[in-house]
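A.,

Following up on our hallway conversation. Structure tokens first:
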């Protein structure tokens, strides 16, 4: 399955889990028998967006296979003191909010426990009585590591059979590294669907070899070279050389936005690197 199918399957699994009724839980997940009885339960106290809550988990015993099992919840994560929404929010804050692990943990603690920065957000509000939240940066780090391992394992085939158009946009983003070294990140994007193909880091962009590596990597991820009809970019000479050598049938269009900026005398030179979204 590609990355979209995996995401859809994960969401559907949560929806199915959330929609299970008491009658559904009477069926043993091991043998499928409904000859089951309730077998006590236990309390969980997860942190959620509403603070710390108490959730009773019902256990069942199957008389057919003598196995016991517990009811599951789409909102809870097995073995965690924090609900699924807290896990996903922390990862989102770190990734899209560009926060450090320490600051992510601080914001989540303030929100969950109505403490720390929450008192700055609501200075006249009375803090509700309750247990303080001690979410640490190391815990958020562990969640990110676990998500990274799962993402790394799903890399093979994650872009297979994804819908792609015949039009691509490409560009390079230059970065200055420690010690004065510079590198350029080459990125290829589908101009219609917005799909981003795996990037490539190179020392320069004025030769055909880095661009060939970019397109070769995209082909390994599922890009159909034969279906390409057009590529939009700036005036990178290396890209033009690669297209003329390997993809001669593809039309190479210069970015009109860059041409306008050059003709107006405003902005970087025509061969400068910029944002791939403008290509």
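Then the amino acids I'd put at each of the 279 positions:
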């Amino acid at each position: 399955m590609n990355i979209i199918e995996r995401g859809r399957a994960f969401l559907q699994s949560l929806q199915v889990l959330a929609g299970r009724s008491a009658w559904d839980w009477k069926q043993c997940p091991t043998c499928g028998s409904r000859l089951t009885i309730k077998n006590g339960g236990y309390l969980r106290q997860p942190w959620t967006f509403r603070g710390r809550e108490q959730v009773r988990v019902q256990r069942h015993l199957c008389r057919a296979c003598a196995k016991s099992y517990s009811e599951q919840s789409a909102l809870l994560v097995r073995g965690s003191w924090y609900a699924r929404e807290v896990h996903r929010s922390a990862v989102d804050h770190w990734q899209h909010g560009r926060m450090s692990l320490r600051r992510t943990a601080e914001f989540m603690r303030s929100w969950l426990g109505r403490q720390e920065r929450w008192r700055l957000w609501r200075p006249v509000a009375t803090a509700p009585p309750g247990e303080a939240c001690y979410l640490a940066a190391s815990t958020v780090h562990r969640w990110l590591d676990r998500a990274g391992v799962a993402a790394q394992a799903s890399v093979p085939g994650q872009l297979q059979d994804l819908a792609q158009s015949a039009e691509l946009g490409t560009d390079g983003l230059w970065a200055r590294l420690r010690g004065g070294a510079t590198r350029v990140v080459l990125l290829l994007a589908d101009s219609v669907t917005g799909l981003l193909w795996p990037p490539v880091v190179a020392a320069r962009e004025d030769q055909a070899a880095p661009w060939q590596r970019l397109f070769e990597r995209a082909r390994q991820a599922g890009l159909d070279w034969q279906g390409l009809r057009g590529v939009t970019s700036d005036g990178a000479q290396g890209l033009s050389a690669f297209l003329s050598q390997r993809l001669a049938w593809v039309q190479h269009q210069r970015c009109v936005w860059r041409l306008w900026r050059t003709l107006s005398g405003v902005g970087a030179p025509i061969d400068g690197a910029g944002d791939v979204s403008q290509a």
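The radius of gyration is 26 Å. Curious whether your intuition agrees with the design.

B.
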